[in-house]
Amino acid sequence: MNSKQNYTVEILFHERQIQKKIFEIASQVSKDYKDKDLVIVAVLNGSFIFCADLVRNLDVRCAIDFIQVSSYVDIQSQGKVQIISGFKEDLIGKDILIVEDIIDTGITLEFLIREISSKKPKSIKTCVFLDKKCAHKKEVPINYSCFEMGNDFFVGYGLDCNGFFRQLPYLGRIKEFDK
Ligand code: IMP
Ligand code: MG
Known about the structure:
By secondary structure, this protein is α/β, with parallel strands linked by helices. It has a single domain, classed as Rossmann fold (3-Layer(aba) Sandwich). The protein has 3 helices and 9 strands; from the N terminus they run βαβαβββαββββ. The chain has a 6-stranded mixed sheet with strand order 4-3-2-5-6-7, with helices on both faces. The chain is globular. It binds inosinic acid and magnesium ion (MG).
């Protein structure tokens, strides 16, 4: 896939469906983290919209931190995760919830769990917007997930294809076509 090609995007979930699901997940998170020392770690760039909606639906005290990682150059994983910008919060003794746009192979989340574990938190859980369950290559615990998906390439609602489509308010699936 390259930037000169044309794409169409098939809409899979509209804003209203997404918001309904996020409200459900946020209610569960609020319940589970009552009386805990919650630190949300949002994984940039992909989770910026999901995380913003999730935290605004939370009914529990939390701090929010960001980590920026990169693992993809195109639609295929490089299988290598790099930290571009790291944690600002002190994670020692905290209850960490990693918020990620999508789990595909699980390489990114496995890496992040390892990184965060080294900061000596009290607990680590994961929350993903999309779970490509059939694509997992690593065994990573997924504690909260909005939608289980097949092995397609998704865009919108924060997810990109080569940096584009993140701003779409809905979730879509890329359909490629050449002129
Ligand atoms: P993993 O390390 O293979 O689990 O990949 C995780 C990262 O790959 C995600 O955080 C996304 O940034 C990116 N990714 C994987 N699948 C898709 C997709 O369908 N659309 C957009 N980004 C994706
Ligand atoms: Mg990502």
